């Protein structure tokens, strides 16, 4: 199956091709351009998308959760039904293998349905009702009811490393649409064709399920200007971004420096430290093999890629790091998303290996073109602590092992760490308790702490926290994966003394939606009267 | 009853008087200095307070909710028991009447107990548990459990207008301590004696209930340097502030510009627009009298003071505004918190009355010294819309009535409004529905929307939202009043695959605290196993 990729913008329900500047996408495996040419969105097109989104906000915020859910399910259904069209475009533009493409599409569809369920169920609005106490002394208590309401138009940036799951119809878009916010996507230029094909299905789903025009638009742009302009646009109300620290910080600053500041949720990468306690070096546990796989998964292009592995010198640790390096050296070279990313990987790899005390454990080839070989570098705890530059993220299949002279140096190394998405601690239960201080230090620095596991593989579920202390993300109080991601696009609104006819269903006495609410201090999902 | 006011800092469990610079507080009614002299905290003292707070964080975050609750209740008990000591100091420094002092103390005690109840009950941590599904295809699901954890040391600024309820042991302090965060208070210099007396009781309560030293410190400073230094201190993790827009924006910028940005929750004032629909001008409803009282309550020094009242020209509106102005003119002059505030009130009042088309409805005396007369100014909708300067907050007993030519101009006036803490809409139910667009516009601009009520009087309850779109506050997604205020000082932490012995009680299978949790997608407070 094939369908034409037109290279146009999707603005509301219409395609738009006003611009004359174009750009192309490339197949990273061959370096050859794809058959498609994409038009850069013009200012007028972007303005129209924002104006439509703002207008759609007035209607879309009133669309009941069950209808928003139908919209999300229609998107999911269309993506699933058209896998045979979408997967080849994804593979052409990303160089990622078919299994990954299908897995990521499945995850994307699963996310859309998870947010559909959340919107349909409705308890996510965190309704709190305190009914009037007219006879209270010294003053009567008024009737007050609060729930989460959508912020308004959200600008979503497609992420290079997840053309399906963190891009056009990815987690940011799904959670914002579930919350009741229109979305304007600035597609990632590396997979503009994938973006267009997905966007067409989102637009079609919006039409078919009767959503207001402007609830979704998709704009193409190869440079930084379009995104910056959207973040600064007076009608945008929040931003979702996954990418580099440089890009995330720049957008975050723009969000703060507006006349009316808006939240910019930027996930900016992380080296996801792993601490291997002595018992975990036992070869029978298989951690070296598990981490060799985790480091090289998806050619190391995951935000939870473990880029730092710390342990205490000794025979076990030496054997562990050796096994890890040998296992990684056996992994075939992988294709990165773009030649330039592979180039950056190679130059950062060289830079790391030139740092004081850093060496490769088992020499590997850096690769060429978009193909790269994985790297295990090694350094002492002392040299690591002395050199904050070794905490930079090397995007790709790279990890740095840090050999600490003892528990005290290990603790110092962990104290020196910046904020991270995840940290992992490997060891026996009794040993984990002995290293309680270390556990506390890791907790303070991460959004998710794993005990005896690998950080890659981010489950989409209510308990997931994908967001850690700065500089891993701009706001550790929110998650970009899992159902709580919906909160990023909402704020509380209290209604005081509102007549029943003006209350939304979520706040009515009879709880017609049957949602969980805190009513006069008690959690209840009772229907039919408070 | 009396007790000495020493003018010293409270740092951890000790008084400290290292500084030699001093300042005094004054009785605004007489202009005379109080008998006390206060030492400016030195950098070394501030550094020690922050270091102790950071050290206390390690222990205090592990203190169970029930013990945090005991601490908060001990503070509440001490403040209540010593009302006869505290109220005279408060009155001496604020010029506010005894009834207000006792009412505010009661509210402060009530807040402390509400947060104690919240901490003791424990469900506020929003526990989410997804248990392992080892046989799930294509990949197993790991065990993941998430809850809210405290951010670390919080810097709280005392607010001039609430020496008890928004200062040393006010809502910010109570919510932060309940969340598990140590607090360093930068006391407000206008009521430094009240701050010291309250702080002494907080410190005593911390000692008596076995809290770690450094969980609370109180620093005095008459200028801006100390507060700025605390916000910029690498160990501070969040900031609570209630005050001017200028001050709030400056602190917020400092928080953003740190090497590691931190949230600054600044409430920066609001003019709390009121829309009077035609039916509400009926004199029998008494709204003119109710608003005359609301505007002049506490000499207009409330954050929810209604500073803007909009209506549609006509006989009813004319009569309403006339009645309002006459009622306000009859209110005796009130004492502001400081001569300089009264001076600023008078100069802004004059400035407003000099704006195009603005006039006083019933001339009142601006007063002198700390005493001020209330003002009702009037302007046409057209002149209001054309002059954004008329949206400035005049801190004090001031309100501006806006006479719109019809519903369309009223809607335009509302569209022109900035973000606000509250808005109020007065009218009959059928009329409210007819003005649905207006209602939607107000909703988008506020944190709390009142139907047929007055905004002053902020209930402390789960449904309260005290925080509105910028520039009313720096972050409309959080509230500074009500139990949800605890969220400001926390972030989510997920634990993956943690052995039972490392789980906090909140996340254990048997739910020993009996809290409400989302377990595998179902809300439950069941104990004894999931």
Range of helix content of chain A: 25-40%
Biggest sheet of chain A, strands in spatial order?
A: 15-17-18-13-12-19-20
Task: Identify the most extensive interface between protein chains.
Answer: A-B, 68 and 68 residues
What is the percentage of strand-forming residues of chain A?
15-25%
Q: How many β-strands of chain A, per DSSP?
A: 23
Radius of gyration of chain A: 25 Å
CATH architecture tag of the largest domain in chain A: 3-Layer(aba) Sandwich
CATH structural fold name of the largest domain in chain A: Aldehyde Dehydrogenase, Chain A, domain 1
The CATH class assignment of the largest domain in chain A is: Alpha Beta
Q: Give unreliable regions of chain A as ranges.
A: none
**Whole-number count of domains of chain A:** 2
CATH superfamily of the largest domain in chain A: Aldehyde Dehydrogenase, Chain A, domain 1
The biggest beta sheet of chain A, please?
7 strands, mixed
The total of helices of chain A stands at 15
Distance between the termini of chain A: 55 Å
Oligomer: homodimer
Protein name (chains A, B): Aldehyde dehydrogenase (NADP(+))
Keywords (chains A, B): Oxidoreductase
Domain Aldehyde dehydrogenase (chains A, B): 20-435
Region (Disordered) (chains A, B): 1-36
